[in-house]
Design brief:
Length: 157
């Protein structure tokens, strides 16, 4: 079996993407943070003692996307052209739904950057809110959509 990230000597390597054509790459990822309804209310009302939870999570998610290649072995450093995070309150399930859309024009996709963005944003929500709710859950981290490159446009069912 040929592995893409292993060289002839059996050592790890970063895949050579230099022969690929540049194309617009977009990825959308999601994470969900489940919590007690009271915790969600405090976040919404700005009553968490550490400060503006979603404002800090927004910045953390952007920073996470920008640092993906430093965190994930063999991820190519990318020149991101856009990182946008959105947060939605799910009152029925006492959850915050995080979505990140990441864009670039380049030779490789931004799926890992989008997934890292929502993961870091979710961890930030947890960190800033854990004093009032230690049993929050970070769930459903997944890629929702991607476009660009050979695989074209894909959307999760």
């Amino acid at each position: 079996m040929n592995f893409t990230h292993i060289n002839e000597q059996g050592y790890a390597r970063m895949v050579d993407v230099s022969s690929k054509n540049d194309s617009e790459r977009i990825a959308i990822a999601q994470a969900i943070v489940k919590m007690q309804p009271e915790t969600m209310g405090k976040i919404r009302d700005g009553a968490i003692k550490k400060g503006d939870v979603l404002g800090v999570a927004q910045i953390a998610g952007i920073m996470g996307a920008k640092q993906t290649s430093a965190l994930i072995p063999m991820c190519h450093p990318l020149n991101l052209t856009s990182v946008n995070l959105e947060f939605a309150f799910d009152e029925v399930n006492a959850s915050i739904i995080i979505e990140a859309e990441v864009k670039t024009t380049g030779k490789t996709g931004v799926e890992m950057e989008a997934i890292t963005a929502v993961s870091v944003a979710a961890l930030t929500i947890y960190d800033m809110s854990k004093a009032v709710d230690r049993w929050m859950e970070i769930t459903d981290i997944k890629l929702l959509e991607k476009s660009g490159g050979k695989s074209g446009h894909l959307v999760r069912d």
